[in-house]
Design goal:
Elements: H1 2-9, H2 14-19, H3 22-34, H4 40-50, H5 61-88, H6 100-122, H7 131-149, H8 157-174, H9 181-201, H10 206-227
Helix pairs in contact: 3-9, 4-5, 5-6, 6-7, 7-8, 7-10, 8-9, 8-10
């Protein structure tokens, strides 16, 4: 009966999740927290700043950390603060955003911060490579798609974040600005671990995870086609 339910819904049933070894569930929670969608833009920007050979060539260490700090404030701190305020005011029931209704406010607030980062901070700084506003525009578009999808089903935010990361790495590879063999391989590994973790420790179905990956990747490609 459990197997038939799995084939219909595409999700692990509670009995199956609880039957997973404790160590597996611990690692699943670990990857879910470390690669929370709030942190993914910061990780990607940090990769571009410190590992890409040309995008930040000529920048001082201070200038690099200034960009990283601005990214952290606008993509991590302020969106997290908005969720904290929504919880305090009773607009959402849980910090974990388990219901579609809880996700509406965080989606809307994140859209504002992502748009500001892309078009007010990154796009108006001529010394910054266009890949930065392109990436953040892709993140903004992904959030818009997530909000619209939320009307119909609870798309996986983690999967959208992973799709965005993969999209950015593919764009860098396609523009041939850096050898992406090992970064893309690591990104694929992380994507697999995070998406598998969400199927183990959340109530997401495979449909919600796959669509999240697809939209995250598609939005990055669309933004790059428009900006780069």
């Amino acid at each position: 009966m459990v197997n038939s339910e799995l084939s219909i819904t595409g999700a692990l049933q509670p009995e199956q999740k609880n039957s997973q070894p404790l160590l597996i569930r611990i690692f699943a929670h670990f990857f879910s927290y470390v690669f929370h969608p709030l942190f993914v833009p910061l990780y990607v920007i940090a990769f571009l700043i410190f590992f890409h050979p040309s995008y930040f060539a000529g920048f001082t260490v201070y200038e690099k950390y200034k960009v990283l700090l601005a990214t952290a404030l606008n993509t991590v701190f302020f969106p997290a603060l908005a969720v904290l305020l929504m919880k305090g005011l009773g607009f959402i029931k849980s910090f974990f955003l388990r219901t579609q209704q809880d996700r509406i406010g965080p989606y809307l607030s994140s859209m504002i911060f992502y748009f500001w980062t892309a078009w007010v901070f990154f796009k108006t700084e001529p010394q910054l490579a266009l890949i930065l506003p392109s990436f953040m525009t892709g993140v903004f578009l992904t959030t818009v798609v997530g909000l619209l999808s939320n009307i119909y089903f609870k798309i996986s935010m983690h999967a959208m974040g992973m799709g965005g990361m993969l999209g950015l790495f593919l764009i860098v590879m396609l523009y041939n600005t850096m050898l992406m063999t090992w970064p893309l391989s690591i990104a694929l590994l992380i994507t697999g671990l995070v998406c598998t973790s969400r199927l183990i420790v959340s109530d997401h179905t495979t449909k919600e995870v796959y669509w999240g990956l697809f939209f995250g990747l598609l939005c990055q490609l669309a933004a790059a086609a428009f900006i780069l």
